[in-house]
């Protein structure tokens, strides 16, 4: 199909007005990339609709004129998913950001998809509720982006990832048709089309509205720090805590290489000379919360913990979480930048996987520092390197490839929550055979027959691509 960019732009301006179709270099330049820093094609225009009707018009025009569209929330994608792989338009959902219906009786809130994830909590907290999925980027990223990536975070062990917290959605298809999938009531009949949108990375349709599940803020919580000289012991403690029936609200592991950098960056935060630190947050009714914390302490002691303690004040709790947040910045002591990986393996395999990663680090003479949402097996190994030193860069990339292979061998995934985008599409054939990929491609064709939605993403390149 012949691309008609000029005609498409004329039609877009006629339908939406000039102020919603930005074409100036100063406006389009920043949309060449996202948080991955990968550079794509310069967009023809940034289109900023303010209603679902306008989203529908944009899709219809671009579909008829054969112009590629990259849907975009806040551009915090770390894998290049929001980078334009071919010349087309960026469809920014940032102006669709309203709360449409707060239904406390049915524990549901209906929002437009461009709303910032954390801003929702501000609305909900005053009613004693929260929206559970909490990616670290929650102060910036959008609900639409969270759905497109099935985003997760520390709370997801207990409350599930995005797909477990969305009841329904409104989606606009490339034809411009608007469809409603699911809603406030549970368990709609027929094929679960909604589930196709989790992890679809903007390739099937544009999410414009979401029906989100509300969770009650727990009455009480206790936060514990447990430091281990042997990471295997930490792994066993985690399995036993969960096996005992306690599902912590958050359960995070910081490994030795990360602790070593933190020891330089903020020396008083965590105990020195440890192989692993766990931050464990238990939540529930005031009457039972201390018993839960005691049980966690007992399990850690049984597994040779060197130090375990319950936070004595909010300041102490915040200091531990601040330490967890600082792990990324602290890597600066090793090198100017780093490869930020996101993988998952079955929970019980994390200690063994980390051991294999240390072997890779040794073989390639790099550092691999990891933090893990260990409760659900998702972890983020980082490989610091010097971008000005070609050798350092090549070793980091080679180690990263080996690391991904190990995670697949362990029965895990090449991505836990950051998606595939451009960066990992070639590794999709490590996860799936021809048949599975072919099925996915056929689904893509059903939703987007002309292939205008976020082309060049998710699927491995084909010959001549
Ligand atoms: C510092 C940092 C920390 C992060 N921590 C986490 C974390 O803890 N957990 C986690 O899961 N992720 C994390 N991420 C990754 C990222 O923030 C999430 O994937 C987030 O969900 C992306 O949202 P966004 O609004 O920025 O989407 P964008 O980056 O704009 O887009 C992401 C993808 O979704 C598509 N898309 C966006 N909006 C829509 C829509 N309305 N309809 C259809 N497709 C759409 C885009 O085309 C693109 O493919 C982190 C990123 C950063 C930079």
What does this protein structure show overall?
With 465 residues, this protein is an alpha+beta fold. It contains 14 helices and 19 strands. β5 and β6 form a beta hairpin. Bound molecules: flavin-adenine dinucleotide. The site of flavin-adenine dinucleotide has 35 residues, from β3, α5 and β10.
Radius of gyration: 23 Å
Shape label: globular
Low-pLDDT sequence parts? none
Question: Cofactors and ligands present?
Answer: flavin-adenine dinucleotide
CATH class of the largest domain: Alpha Beta
Q: Indicate the structural class.
A: alpha+beta
The CATH topology of the largest domain corresponds to: Uridine Diphospho-n-acetylenolpyruvylglucosamine Reductase, domain 3
The domain count comes to: 4
CATH architecture of the largest domain: 2-Layer Sandwich
Estimate what percentage of residues fall within beta strands. Answer: 15-25%
Instruction: Count the DSSP helices.
Output: 14
In round numbers, the mean pLDDT is 94
Structure keywords:
14 helices; binds flavin-adenine dinucleotide; alpha+beta; Alpha-Beta Plaits; Uridine Diphospho-n-acetylenolpyruvylglucosamine Reductase, domain 2; 4 domains; 465 residues; Uridine Diphospho-n-acetylenolpyruvylglucosamine Reductase, domain 3; globular
